[in-house]
Design brief:
The protein is an all-alpha fold. The chain has helices at 3-18, 22-34, 39-58, 62-67, 69-92, 109-121, 124-137, 145-175, 180-203.
Length: 204
């Protein structure tokens, strides 16, 4: 694949990734209350989910995706359930500033990876990008294996950079919180945002 096409894909992917959606909400809200720990596994899973949707688009599986509606409903509901779980954890998190808080243990990197993958595969924004928008902009029907590998590499780099920026900003904001009251309001605001993202994933 030529450089101009890859650059074009990187640009539209970056714009799509930067626009707030369920994945961004989950990542930011989790970072605000938990810090950066575990974010790498979560971001890696989101990138893998994008690669799988790219593969589906390249193989012409848009019609199959429509046919297997019940399967994708289950995937979407799994992602929504994880967001609701996060919303509950955020709402009930101890109201202590990050410097003092002793947070309840959380699932490990493998669990976070699985949750991120379920969220990515059930994210209506990601589905629409790869199955509806991208095929109208790039000829995916004649994409070679090398071209797919190049686009996958672009996905890994672009999403890592964009989501890492979100994580760093959220972590910096988290460190500025100095009171229990502020932390309580932050937890609950993030919980409400997370619940809203879950509704979006489940209903679209």
């Amino acid at each position: 694949m030529d450089f101009a096409t890859l650059a074009f894909f990187a640009g539209i992917l970056a714009l799509a990734a930067m626009s707030p959606g369920p994945a961004v909400v989950a990542l930011v809200a989790r970072t605000l209350t938990r810090g950066r720990a575990g974010s790498a596994a979560f971001i890696a899973a989101l990138a893998l989910g994008d690669m799988l949707w790219l593969a589906a688009a390249c193989l012409g599986l848009a019609a199959l995706a429509a046919t297997l509606g019940s399967f994708f409903v289950i995937v979407r509901l799994a992602g929504a359930a994880y967001l609701l779980y996060l919303a509950y954890r955020l709402w009930t998190e101890p109201a202590q500033p990050p410097s003092e808080a002793t947070l309840a243990p959380e699932r490990g990197p493998l669990g976070l990876f699985g949750a991120g993958l379920a969220l990515s595969m059930g994210n209506p924004k990601t589905m629409a990008f790869y199955l509806a928008l991208l095929p109208t902009l790039i000829d995916l029907e004649h994409l070679t294996l090398l071209g797919f590998a190049e686009m996958s590499a672009v996905i890994a780099v672009v999403l890592a950079v964009v989501f890492a920026v979100y994580v760093l900003i959220a972590d910096r904001a988290r460190r500025l919180i100095a009171s229990s009251r502020a932390m309580r309001w932050l937890n609950r605001a993030c919980g409400v945002a997370m619940a809203g993202a879950a509704v979006t994933v489940a209903t679209k």
